[in-house]
Amino acid sequence: MSQRFRGLGLGGLGKFGALVLATQAILGPLDMAMGQESAAPLRAVPEDPALWDSVNASLGQLDPTKLPDLASSRSNLESQVERLERYLDSSPSQGPAWKSFLRWDTLRKELAQAEPNPETLNDLEKRFRQNYSGLEYSPFVGVREALSKYVQESRVSRDPDTTMQILKNRLSKLSERMQLPDMRRDPKAMHDLGQVVTYMKQANQSPALVSSVLNRFSQPNIRAIVSDDFLRKSFSRPVDQANPVNELILGTTIVGQSILCGQVSPVLLSNPNQATIRLLMNADFASQNKGYNRGVVLNTTGTADVAACETLTLGDAGLMSLGDTGVDAQLSTSIQSIEHKLKIVRKIAAKQASKKKPQADAIGEARMENRIRTEFHQQLTDQLAEANSKLRQAMDSPVLGRLGVPKPQRGSWSHPEQLGLHWKVQSGTQLASDAPCPFPADECGLTLQIHETLAGNLLDPVLAGRILRSEEMEGYVAQFGDLAKGIPRKEQDGPWAITLNSFRPVETVFDDNLIKFRVSTSRLEREDQSLPNTATVEAAYQLVQADGTVQLVRQGELNVEFTGKVQQGTRGVVLRTFLKNKFEQLFRQELFDSPIRWSDRLPEQFKNLQLCAVGIDDGWLQLQIR
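Above: the chain's sequence. Below: its structure in token form.
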């Protein structure tokens, strides 16, 4: 940052960019049961009659002839595989290593069969979703997306009669559940709604229902709300800039020194579509100069009240100026003395100076305004470029491309009391929030709001259907660091494999001041034991604050449940114990190794902020910061 930029007090824009960065964000089988029917009495009127009508209408619109054409999907997959193979073969040194890592021989063997195994292909697809440099390149992404599409469509198209019956059962149960109260606060019901929509979309059924649900659950799941008071205190900056004076006005050469002292402050403007801020500078100008004209020296002083402004907006491309720089200055000069060896010359010079002073002041004022306008805009432009560079680095991280996680959609708004930033992490048929956070935002600080759909939507592309194998755990730690240390490999356990559910394997629930984590698995294998039953692992945590730190403390025991009668048998007990021991390492009594001093995770400009209030309810986690 240049000294001149600091002089005009625009450095606060770097903090605004840091604020955006600090709040930006990272994180099944068709025959699964839709859920247990409730014995509660049905409501006469569903909570959402229009959506209920759409569900019921879909029951009569199921059409097996609309199921996806597997031949087209397979042709695209084979084409993408050929493309990647040509790309890999062009590098004799790297190509063989990539083929080994991607299990190329297994992929080729599957595609040689008349009906490739969808579960094997799904396992191979997850090889393309890892944090290794190169997997974000187009040839790899093409195969990954083609594999995902073929796996999804093969699950619904291979047995049309069974698919239609399963969808009918799911829609019927969903229709019944929608007549009970508080469906949106029932995690199981929302899970089932999302699953129905996903499979209806994959099966090319009832686009009206799919569209209706997605429109209903498509609000941002991350919000940051900044009060005008917080904005002014955080981003107002002093102006203290000294500059040399060297001007030629009406034949007189003027040299000296000037100083501009004041403050630049942000003012929020109303704009419901994107955050808009006007930067206002109010400053005092003072100068002390000497004017030289044909041997006469004029000692002068100048003062002025200066106001400057420019408007910024936060759009898709980042922070940008509207280029409406305005400057207003009221310059007043005084001649303190006139120097010349002859008195008569001094008198004549005084008369001439007095006569020309209004014109000279007008010229000086116009030049000063133009100079301040140019410098104000240029320094602002430089700082915006720096802030936008940081924003692009955060938003265009190659990690998201490697994992196949869609880039969050960003938006913003503003009015005179608040500025809001929001992000929506949602792709395909994922559900996001259906209503704003119920907690009021802090009137004098920064409010962060996170919806419970965030974690699942981030992790679903990476974890859905993934098989966690004991021999690969060290590789996950190498890629993702501490995030992957939760389920360690122990030699005494022998080889094991945990298959995560193919639909929303990881979910969070924010309710009643608790944060609940739920992991769903579809299969568990350990040495010669196998359990092809769905299991759910759940842990509830309370957020505890102490001495500027936060910790998540588990409430109660880790809960592990299997579906079906197997949970009552000896094998079920053994494997439940094994599964519980594994996830105990992930969902520990205290989730973090040590309490997190959360301010340490913030950019340097925000180290002094304090977490003053936490709210967890109705699907939202809210943090109020001052």
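Confidence is low (pLDDT under 50) at residues 1-7, 18-43.
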